[in-house]
Amino acid sequence: MGSTESSTHEGFTAEERAAMKERAQEVKTAGRRTSRAEKAAQAERDVLEKIAGMPDADRAMAERVHAAVTAAAPSLAPKLWYGMPAYALDGKVVCFFQAAAKFKTRYATLGFSDLAKLDEGTMWPNAFALTEVTPEAEARIAELVKRAVG
To answer: What's the CA gap between 126 and 106, in Å, rounded?
Structure first.
C-alpha cells in the first residue's frame, strides 16, 4: 500500500551515527595501549590531530579552547570523546569542545558533563555556544574550567 505523504525516519542522523562509531573506535583503540603514560600521550596526540583536521574556523577556536583548558586545569587529561576533543579527570569527561561542522550547526559548543562543579542554585548552563574565542571568551573558559574541577 502506497502513501502520497513522504515518511521521515526519526532515528539517528548520519552525523550522530558517525560520532557513535568514532566513540566505539576510541574505546577499542584505548584498550590496546599498554602503559598509562603511553595512553595519555597518544590520547593527547589524538586530540591535537582531530583539532588539526577541523575546518579553519572550528580549528582556530578548538586550538584556543585546548590551550585555555590545559592551562587552567592541568589535572584534566585530553582525550577524544565521540570524535570530539574532551578533557577528563580520572578517565571521566568533565568538558568537551564540539565543532560546528561536527553536527552541521551554526556555532561550536563548549560543553560540561554532570561531573563539572558548575552548580548555581536549581538551574545553570552546562553548554556554551562559541562563534569566536576572543580574549574575553578565553578568560571565561578558563574560569569555568577551574570551577568545574574545583
So the answer is: 18
Q: Are strands 108-112 and 84-89 parallel, antiparallel or unpaired?
A: unpaired
Antiparallel, parallel or unpaired: β 77-81 and 84-89: antiparallel
Cβ atoms of residues 102 and 67 within 8 Å: no
In angstroms, the CA 140 to CA 15 distance is 29
Task: Identify the residue whose cell numbers are 542522523.
Answer: 13
pTM of the model: 0.82
SS3 53: coil
Q: How far apart, in whole angstroms, are the C-alpha atoms of residue 24 and residue 11?
A: 19
Distance CA 114, CA 47 (A): 22
The answer to whether 118 touches 126, Cβ cutoff 8 Å, is yes
C-alpha cell at 136: 574575553
- Set of cell numbers at residue 10: 526519526
Bridge partners, residue 123, by sequence:
none
For residues 22 and 80, give the distance between their C-alpha atoms in angstroms, rounded to a whole number.
9
Give per-residue pLDDT as tens, 8-30.
668 999 999 999 998 888 888 77
